[in-house]
Amino acid sequence: MILLEINNRIVEEALMLKFSNALNGAKPENVDITVADFDGVLYHISNPEGDKTKVRVSISLKFFKDLQEHGADELIQREYGQFIVEPEDGYNVSVVYDLENVPANHEEVVKKAGLLKRNCFASVFEKYFEFQEKESTGHKRAVINYRDDETMYVDARKDRVTVIFSTIFKDDDDVIIGKVFMQEFKEGRRRYQQAPQVLFSHKEPPLELQGTDARTGDNIGYITFVLFPRHTNKAAKDNTINLIHTLRDYLHYHIKCSKAYIHSRMRAKTSDFLKVLNRARPEPKKVEKKTITGKSFVRN
């Protein structure tokens, strides 16, 4: 199984090309690129007010208001600082880079631009990791509606942070394959005791969400991660955020890959069976033959 990239490579490559051309003295050119990412996220790379010497990167997240309640604005300000401008119409965050004044650390700047979605998502995790570190109690559970009809819940206790993803399986087959993946997570924890605890519930929400408006149904699944201080401390938190915020996409990506692999194997096996059947076809008992003179006769 592969891990999905947490950065947006198209954003990085487009911005790096602009910086490289500017450093080489090339004439700036117009840019207008719209990029779709997981969870309904959209990026827009453009020239603000048609100024080719500046490049604006904007991001739109349907759930940005949910993230703002947990410090998204402050985290974006911390990470992007001087590059932040008034958001482009229809987008939540915009950063602008001046091609006439390329930053000395432009490679790091490009990398951060590709992590715009990740950094928006990180605010809620950092907040609740801090709650756990300070053993703070009495706070409200975070509810992030990160997709249509799918929700992420984050809560902190003195000794753990619980992250719950609700997800919808479109096919019955997806539920079965999803359960297999969840079982692999459980098996992984048996081999690596430092791994977080992973729980999976189908149809009904876990106990932590009992009494809430959490959805139920045959195609609903809930994935629970229990993160302990070894996963949320300052040394490990960045890696934890990188991995867990892509969990839903990771799961469904591999479900689709598994189904594609199964289908390809079924087609290959069917082809093999057809070859066997063709070879096993009996020859007709009566065969018409011709002599050298052209006369026909039937051989039994």
Descriptive report:
The chain has 300 residues and is α+β, with helices and mostly antiparallel strands. It has helices at residues 9-23, 64-68, 72-80, 106-114, 116-133, 172-191, 229-232, 237-244, 247-279, and strands at residues 32-36, 42-46, 54-60, 84-85, 93-98, 142-147, 150-156, 161-168, 197-202, 220-227, 287-290, 296-299. The mean pLDDT is 90.
The total of helices stands at 9
Order of helices and strands: HEEEHHEEHHEEEHEEHHHEE
Helical content band? 40-55%
Rg (C-alpha, Å): 28 Å
Distance between the termini: 60 Å
Model regions low in confidence, pLDDT < 50 over at least 5 residues:
none
The chain-level mean pLDDT equals: 90
Let me know the number of strands: 12
Main sheet properties: 5 strands, antiparallel
Strand content: 15-25%
Task: Describe what is shown at a glance.
This protein is of the alpha+beta class and 300 residues long.
SSE layout and pairing:
Blueprint: H1 9-23, E1 32-36, E2 42-46, E3 54-60, H2 64-68, H3 72-80, E4 84-85, E5 93-98, H4 106-114, H5 116-133, E6 142-147, E7 150-156, E8 161-168, H6 172-191, E9 197-202, E10 220-227, H7 229-232, H8 237-244, H9 247-279, E11 287-290, E12 296-299
Antiparallel strand pairs: 1-2, 2-3, 3-5, 4-5, 6-7, 7-8, 8-10, 9-10, 11-12
Helix pairs in contact: 1-4, 3-5, 6-9
Looking at this protein, list some descriptive labels.
alpha+beta, five-stranded antiparallel beta sheet, 23% strand, 9 helices, 300 residues, flat, single chain
